[in-house]
Every structure is written in C-alpha cells, then in structure tokens.
Amino acid sequence: MTTSASDRYRSWGGYPPATAARVVRVGWRSDPLPADPSDGPMLAFGNGRSYGDVCVNDGGTLLDTRGLDRLIAFDAERGLLRCESGVLLGEILDFSVPRGWFLPVTPATAQVTVGGAIANDVHGKNHHRAGSFGHQVRSLELLRSDGVRLTASPTENPQLFRATIGGLGLTGLVTQAEIQLKSVAGPYIDQERVPFANLDACFRALAEADQRFEYASAWLDCAASGPDLGRGVLIGGDHTAVAETRRQRRPLALAVPFTPAASLVTPWTLRAFNATYAGLQIGRPARRRMPVERFFYPMDRIDGWNRIYGPSGLLRYQCVVPLGPGQAAVREILEQIAQSSAGSPLALIKRLGNHPPAGVLSFPREGYTLAVDLPNRGQQTLSLLDALDQVTRAAGGAVYPATDARMSAESFRAYYPRWQELARHADPAFSSSFWRRVSE
Amino acid sequence: MPRVLIIGATDSVAQATARRYAERGARLFLVAPEPARIEAIAADLRVRGAEGVVGAAMVPGDFARHRAVIAEADASLGGIDLALIAPPSQSDRQTAEDTGARIRDDFAGKALSTLSLLTELAHLLEPRGGGTLAVLSSVAGERGRRTDPLSSAALASVTVFLQGLRGRLGAAGVQVLTVKLGPADGPYGQIMALPEPSRIARRIVRAVDRRRDLVYAPALWAPAAWLLRALPEAVLKRLPF
To answer: Which of chain A's residues have a Cβ under 8 Å away from the Cβ of B193?
Structure first.
C-alpha cells in the first residue's frame, strides 16, 4: 500500500503533531550515520505505527530506515533469521511462512519494522507462553553517533542489549538483528470464540484461556454499563496442527484514502458500530479455521484506518495492572470511560504472563493489559486519560510508551523506575519528542 | 532457472526485481559502483532462494570496462537470459550554473553509458537469437520538462535508442523491453504517492514473461503519457513542471 509523502512521517495517532526539521533516508547498513549530531537530535523512524510521540522528533532529524529492508542470513535448521532493521514483520512472514516458520511473538499489526518491534519491545496474544518480542532477539547491531558499531546480545554488551530492547530507539541506530522464529505446521489458525456476560466472567475466561490456548485476547463492549459492564468475547487460537498448502490469494484490500475533515468516530457511529459488531458476533460459529493474517492482523486489511479519526487524530490508552488489585482497576477504568461518553468502540484486554522483562524499559509485565482507542477531543480526552493514569498508578501498573502521547514525566518515572538506566546507555545524539517530554 | 544480469543493481526497483527472480531460483550477476552494497543485496537474494549471486563493481561512466564486465557476467552465468539496466538516478538537477563540461559528464552518465551497455549486450545476444534486454526509463522523458531539460533529453534518448534496437533485435528473437516509470521527483512525487518498488517489480517481471515491448509502472502512467505526448507545444511550454 502507498502512503503519501506528507502523511508518512507522522505517528499513527497523529497526536501530538510534530514536524522533523530533516528526514534522511538510511538505505545501506554499511553506510555511516547520514546525519550530523550538531544538527540536533536524531531518531530512527520505521513505519510510523507507534501511536504517540515515541516515533517522532519535533524539530530534529528522522532517519527513515525502511530502505534497510534486506534479509542477511537464514538458518533453516534452527529458524534463525538475521535481517536489517527496516524489514516489516509482514515481509518476514511472506518469506518465512511458506518455509514453515512463524514469528514467535507478533503484535496486532504486521506493518511494523523489526527495529520498531525491538525499540518498543512489542508483545502479542501469547505473552503468557512466549514473552515479548525482545525475548526472541538473539543479537543486534547498533550504530552509535560517534561512528562506533557495537554488537549487543544477552552475552555481548548485555547491559546495552537490555537497554536497547524497549529502549525507544534511544541507544543508537539498530542496523540489523537476529531473531528466533518458531516452526509451524501450516499457515492456519484454529480460532475459538468464547462470549462472556460481564467483567468477572471475563477475568475467569482469560485465566482459563491461558491454559487452553497459545493465543488469547478479549474484546470488551465499552458501551455496556451496570451489570453488563465488561461484557464481550474472548478469542483464542492455536496453530493448526495439520500441514496445509497455502493458497496464494491476497485478502480483499480496503483503504481509507484520505483524512475526512472531522472525525467519523462519534457517539452515534460508535453505537451503530457496536450494534453491528454485536450482531455479527451472534451469527458466527464458535470455531473457525482461518489464515494467520486474518487471525492476527484484521485491521491491516484496511489501509490507513487511523484516518477515520479525522485531523485531530486518536489517542490509545494502553496500561497494564497486576492480576490481583488490577481487577478493580480495570473495572474503574471501564466505568470512567463509559461515564465520560468519550466513546471507544471496543476495548482489548488480555493477560500477560510472568516472564522477566526482556529490557530495562519493557512494558509487558504480569497482569491485565487493557487498550482503548479514543478520538482526540482535546482537553476533555486528555483529562479523562489523566484520571485513568491515577487509577493505573494506584494499582501499581504502567502505561505503554509505544501508544502514549501525553503521560506526565512524573507518571512515566513512577511506571518505569529504571528509566535512568536507559538514560545512561542512550546515545547523546538520539532523542524523541516522547523522551524530551518525560525525561527533561 | 533464469540467468539474470542487473546493471545498476543498487537501484530500488532493480533490487525489488532481483528479489522476484531470486524467488524463482535464478542465478544473478549484479553490477553497481559500491562493493559493500552489492554484497548486502547479494546476501538478501541468496536467502530468498537465488541459486547463485556474483557481483562486480563498476561505475556506469567507465565505458572502457563495459565489454569486459558483460563478458565476465556472461561467463559467470553461463549465458544471459535477461539483462536489466537501471541507469543512475535522475536526482541531480540541472542548474543555472551548469557548465558545458558538466552537461557532458551528466549526459554520459545518465544516457550514453546505457547506450554503450546496450550496444555491447546486443552484440552478445543477437547472434544467439534469444534473451531479453530491459531498461528502466521514465515518462519524464516523454516530453522536455522545464524543470530538468537535461534529464528529459537523457531519458528520451534511451527510450528512442531502445525503439531502434527493438526493431533490429526483434527479428533475431531478442526481446527489448522499455520500462517507463513515473517520475520520482517534482510535483508528481508530492501529489501521487510513489508505488512500492515491489509492485513495480511485479509488473516488470510479468512484462518480461509475456515478451512485451513496453510497460508502464504503475499502469496509470500509460494514459497519462499518451496525454503528455498529445499536448501541443503551445500548451506544454506553459506547464509548470
């Protein structure tokens, strides 16, 4: 799919607005850094799927890494893939799935680069089994602004490695990485849907799903309140055991070709959407077999879906709260959203497992993670999110930098008490709008 | 197992095309100025399934080496089924300060080197009565553009040379394919998003498979180029690009 030049260097949510003073394309891993540190801070930009400002650098230099899209080596016995950092996860799958290998961890879009997946230490629906993306990275190469190239891995420069995993791109330019893939029988997922009537049932369903499924997450209807609060459907899935040949057919590609003058996400359209979605759920079979793309990346079929939120953009709130006290926090957050009539069509909830974090600033930790997309209605929305932060902090949780556009420096430091460890390993010439917001 | 020679292999469209042939298990010979970049591409193509990839470093303006490099590729591949030439990018704009000497060097790099390479390849393929010559040109050469007359002229000369060659080599069974890309710069680049190289590559490979003479990539440029060619000079000279 194509993206027009003006749209390319914004974040996915479009808020806060930011304009880089310079954009430099990085096309070759053997080249030195193409920007001069004295021209201001620089930051790698992959495919712009971060929602807030971790991927933008207002007034600074962006290093566009999509030209670093080459594979370097593949060990077909062990499933080890070495590739450049601008390769999209979807491009890895195009290569690996026909050969019987899959990404052990994938977020809900395949349109992110390897570098972005590392910098945000992304997670997927199988965190309880596999951990986060950073756990799959065997080694990486960093190009620092002083011209030095460093290999970092759990055994070589281990502190720098752990600072880079989830390090928001601040430790230098990741030029290449080696990733462990996992063997799968075929390109299909057996999916099962488990509806639940309220939030308590949701927590039970999530706990059971961790035992039953490799992949599990649940959708909540944010419009439901009172006794129905937290009603929704859990979607579990496993790789189909039988080998099947892949039919080389691309799914129907839809696109939002331009940004409408105003957000199309309003209380009215949300109500209509929720009703339609609920209607569709009822008629569907509980078990289905589907291609991996359909299961993991339903939204990737609609190119530029973020544009329906209009020029003001959207804000995603994604937090994680510990399992025990977190249940009350999730309830509180859902109630506040329902009362605010800010309107989110759906909220996504899943349980994260108790893997030790892969990086210093990794977001995934044991607990419930809840994600909601809100149209940006200015101060009203920001106030609501500040209130949600109070709940998350009181519960001992954290907010995800990859989706954040507004958390306070104080909140950030409470969520990530080891942030100064990242600051110590950060490259002095690298920074982002996000990092200046929370660290200065 | 196709045997493919790519000159200007570091070009993004050439790279994407090479990948498609690598997926078919091709043997490839890559020519570009920078050895480190050739090696990065070669590794990628090997991982994607190429049976063998060899590279040679050459700057396009090094006319004296054209024949030797093509002979080396021919020997290394054991014959050439497809030779794809991606001339150096058109990004260097002509400026008011340009001197005659710079114009000569520029034109040599962008156009004459391609004509020289094509001539050498034609000598090789014509007696064998088979194979394909493909060159990346651009609709920016359909008519002279006020913003960059030199590049327009360079592209036009390549396109017209290919027309002549096609007539001659076609009789011998050699396919000559002109690939007309959309212009990468100027107002088009701002208004029309550049298509991904992989999509352009798919069109090129299909055009080679079908032994076509001319392919526009993206296809939208076919009617646009027709319109450009039809414009009277009186209108054309008023266009802002």
So the answer is: 2-5
